[in-house]
Amino acid sequence: MLTKKVALISDIHSNIEALEAVLSDIDKQGIIDICCLGDIIGYGPNPREVLRRALQWQFSIRGNHEEGLLYTPFDFNADAIKALDWTRTELNSEDCSKDENFSLWNFLGDLGDIQEENDVMYVHASPRSRTREYIMPFDIKDEDTMRELFSLVNRLCFCGHTHLPGVFTEDFRFYLPSMVDNVFVPKDGKKFIINIGSVGQPRDRDLRASYVVFDGEKITFHRVEYDYKKTMQKIVDTKKLPLRFAERLAFGR
């Protein structure tokens, strides 16, 4: 059971600098419950470190990158598969104890693909395809798709996956956080799908890490600066991870 105020994070992608900055910002607000909507790993240079943090959270959900790591990667590009292969090697490192390796793999294997609290749903991607479907802002033009998605939502659905924060309404509108002054109050009797953005690899041309605070009544979007140049250099230093995963952090795309 969650407390009244919860911090929602997603798509960390092994970026410990972004995660630590977000966790510090959450701590300053006195928020205890932290929930992650998937893609803890993938792309970035610190999978072990972010997973260690994840062990302490209220709950985490399986994303497509966790699925790709645990099973055969499906619908991943070659660079993303390289990152998963490198991550797999890191999580089996002989430089770390077998007990810790087992603990991290066990955590990943136990992740579910949905969490529900009363009339609120938490998934990685969408209510229809919980780990894979992208709900993009332009999808509001596809009314049949939106109707089907909202038919699966009781009241609120929080998700990540696209790395693009914002609010979808059942009357086929999409609101960027800036369009609601970063605070959205869901109307009673209406349904909403809320994308909380990405902690570790933002793609809305804003370099800052993104997360959401939900207090049961309002949804607040937060952005936090972090040392992205440090993360970029770590990716380069692995000599294994594709360089474009470093470069995109400097542009937020």
UniProtKB/TrEMBL annotation:
Classification via InterPro entries: Ap4A_hydrolase, Calcineurin-like_PHP_lpxH, Metallo-depent_PP-like, Pesterase_MJ0912
Pfam families the record matches: Metallophos_2
Gene3D superfamilies attached to this UniProt entry: 3.60.21.10
Cellular component terms (Gene Ontology): cytoplasm
Residues of the Calcineurin-like phosphoesterase domain: 5-215
Family recorded in the similarity comment: Belongs to the metallophosphoesterase superfamily. YfcE family.
Protein name listed in UniProt: Calcineurin-like phosphoesterase domain-containing protein
Organism: Candidatus Schekmanbacteria bacterium RBG_16_38_10
